[in-house]
Amino acid sequence: MMDNRARDEAAQWFVRLQDAGLDATERERFDAWRSEKPEHQYEFDVLQGLWSAADLVPKARLQALGEVPAERPQRRGVLRYAVAASVVAVALGLGLFSGLDHPKPYRADFSTRLGEQRQVALPDGSMMDLNSRSVVSVHYEKGRRSVELKQGEAMFSVEHDTRRPFVVAAGAGQVTVTGTRFDVRRDDDQTRVVVEAGTVKVQGRSPNEGVTLTAGLGTHINDQGLVAASYAVNTEELTAWRSGKLVFNNASLGEVAREVSRYRERPLRVSTPAVGNLQLTSVFKANDTDALLKALPHILPVALRTLPDGSQEIISR
């Protein structure tokens, strides 16, 4: 489902432009609105496409749809109907939407700061939930919806579109879907993919090798581009960050340190492989990792020490 607010605002601006034009002050406001969000320009472009295409539809086709009176309306009548009934409904009814697939490429970059989470609505109705310290670039074109996860983690809820696959590139791998819900996490040494709903195809450096994941399955791609066999995952635990939680179920302290580092100014480390192999089962708040560090010595035989650079290290006690 598209952003109705952006669509309605685009329609209001378009009507004003057709009715009487804009003075200098209004033009500045309109230009500011268009540049405020990528979806604003997108919705305005769709309206322009519908406006131009309406005159190409045969009169009999319009009457058969029951959308207009017997006499062919002027452009302003068609536009006013589109505004009242919604751009998408009219475009689908007229069979025009396939010709209005965003006339210009859609490009946008999104990021989150330390401890920040952000939800992003994309022009096709897909959603991205970005975790702390994440960076993504989005590029939509006629036959492909592309996202590059440059850093961090993102949950994708993808609108179904068989004509335009949704492809997420991360590290040495990529994930291809037409519509589903999945999480991708990029670390320095690997990229992890877990699926909550639907089906995704995960590939590494070789396009002929990969795995297909369905709900409840995951995999990872190492820094050499090799894709692991699929395995069962607890998606609720792995995506608990979306509700501000860190859930650890028999997780190694090495994994805990890596996860906690995403929410701290300086990284958390483990002193030795033996310490890193200790296991933790608990739930903490993502925005209060200090509480986790205070609790660790009471749960496991470890202590915390602060290093010269201000980072902290988990050591054996």
UniProtKB/TrEMBL annotation:
Signal sequence segment: none
Pfam family, one: FecR
Molecular-function annotations in GO: sigma factor antagonist activity
Keyword terms: Membrane, Transmembrane, Transmembrane helix
Domain FecR protein, residue spans: 109-201
Protein name from the UniProt record: FecR family protein
Domain FecR N-terminal: 8-45
Transmembrane feature ranges: 78-100
